[in-house]
Design a protein that fits this description.
Arc Repressor Mutant, subunit A, four-stranded antiparallel β-sheet, two-stranded antiparallel sheet, Gyrase A, domain 2, 23% strand, elongated
Length: 152
Amino acid sequence: MPKKNRHFSILRLIESDVESQQDLLDSLLEEGIEVSQSTLSKDLKELGIIKVRAKNGRFRFVQTTERDVFHAGLMLRREIMDFLRDKVRVHNLVVLKTVPGNASGLSKFLDEIGWPEIVGTLASVDTVLAITQSDEDAERVIQRLDEMIAGG
């Protein structure tokens, strides 16, 4: 089964009362999805799923996308403040120059923050190319970066 389909099944199953990885493995197996414990652990990590204690004292799995986006925002701001040296908009592209060796970190957090204007990023040693669909989207990315620099 493709990973994407397995991930979809995992996300659906964590909405039920599975309390442990073994319960999740058993539920997946009942659906005809055979997966090892280590693969399931990797899947949970990739999906941002953690186990928490519910109000009733029992454990359950939750996806941590909100926390991850908040964390990515903090890390992106730190990357910008520490390593961004210049930014230029060229039509629907945003070129970001960084301190050598730091473009991949900036690119990673731009991807993780989930700004709808950014379709994707590419990074070299000291340059990030943020690709947007329109000139307006690229301008909005520049505005967002300026707001982060200003502390807003």
